[in-house]
Amino acid sequence: MASVTLLIVFPFLMAYAAARDVLTMLIPNTVSLLLLLGFAVFAASTGLWGWDLASHLGAGAATLAVTFTLFAFGIIGGGDAKLAAATAIWIGFDHLADYLVVASIAGGALTLAILVARSHPLPSALGRFPFALHLHDAKTGVPYGVALSLGALIVIPETMTWARMMAS
Asked: Which of 37, 62, 113, 160 is deepest in the core (most CB within 10 A)?
């Protein structure tokens, strides 16, 4: 069961969060809740308890505290804050900094790409798609869920979570 949650559920939810963020600029709460539920199943099936479990939950709580503050100041969206925290529970403290650095680099590249795209007229073929019009609008933010998801998928194979799955 651990391999199903880590190899199927986790990447699916990351990809879904990224796609929803691009298409709607919203990450549904259900994605973060399903990530938490998936982690609970993973923890139970691999025997993750005690200090190890507390450490993973602490990584999520610390990330939520920081990202909620960023949300309160209007720097990131609420869905991004919740997605980062739910993902941090999977990542744990052992590679949390790696996750945040990779997501930040991906977010910077995504932001630059969107700014460059916005500096040019939107191709007429894309003008038929509401999400493309919305993304091209200078008043619209950046779908940072894409960067958070990419960071998670890049870093997760290096974590203790992955090692636990391989051992079970």
From this structure: 160
pTM, 2 dp? 0.95
CA neighbor of 52 nearest in space, from 141, 166, 163: 163
Q: H helices of the chain, where?
A: 2-4, 10-24, 29-46, 50-72, 78-91, 96-118, 130-136, 145-155, 160-167
Q: Computed over its alpha carbons, how large is the radius of gyration of the chain?
A: 17
With 0-12 / 13-18 / 19 or more C-beta atoms within 10 angstroms meaning exposed / middle / buried, residue 147 is: buried
Mean pLDDT in residue range 150-163 = 96
Q: What single letter denotes the amino acid at residue 153?
A: L
Residue 166: is its pLDDT beyond 90? no
Are the beta carbons of 145 and 110 closer than 8 angstroms?
no
3 state SS of 92: coil
